[in-house]
Write a structure and sequence with these properties.
The protein has about 110 residues and is mainly β. The chain is built from no helices and eleven strands. Strands 2, 4, 5, 6, 9, 10 and 11 form a seven-stranded mixed sheet that branches. A four-stranded antiparallel sheet has the order 1-3-8-7, with no helix packed on it. A hairpin with a 5-residue loop joins strand 4 and strand 5. It is globular, with a radius of gyration of 13 Å.
């Protein structure tokens, strides 16, 4: 059974940083791309970032490029999202996903507010 268990998130001031983690199990993590999505209140689901199965190709949405960093540690079956220079518009529930959305984590609230 595929499981994606998220941790991290919380409340941070604008300009601050947070790190989200996603522990994967039930599939061959080494052979799977992983993604992060987010959904802000009242808005559609938005793709944020993806790392491919080789871990050599990484992609970001324009809204987070230069501020967020995705990484994956195959030995730990973990994918992370380091979020720096956070803005109020980054407030959302964040989801990790296997591939482009075959399976989803439980979601983690990130709130950026002064």
């Amino acid at each position: 059974e595929v499981q994606l268990v998220q941790s991290g998130g919380g409340l941070v001031h604008p300009g601050g940083s947070l790190k989200l983690s996603c522990d994967a199990s039930g599939f061959n993590f080494n052979m799977s791309g992983m993604s992060w999505f987010r959904q802000a209140p009242g808005k559609d689901l938005e793709w944020v970032s993806m790392i491919d199965s080789t871990r050599g190709h990484i992609y970001y949405s324009d809204s987070v490029k230069g501020r967020f960093v995705i990484s994956a540690v195959n030995a730990d079956n973990t994918v992370s999202l380091q979020m720096d220079s956070l803005k109020s518009e980054d407030t959302a529930v964040y989801y990790c996903a296997k591939g482009a959305g075959a399976h989803w984590g439980q979601g983690t609230q990130v709130t950026v507010s002064s």
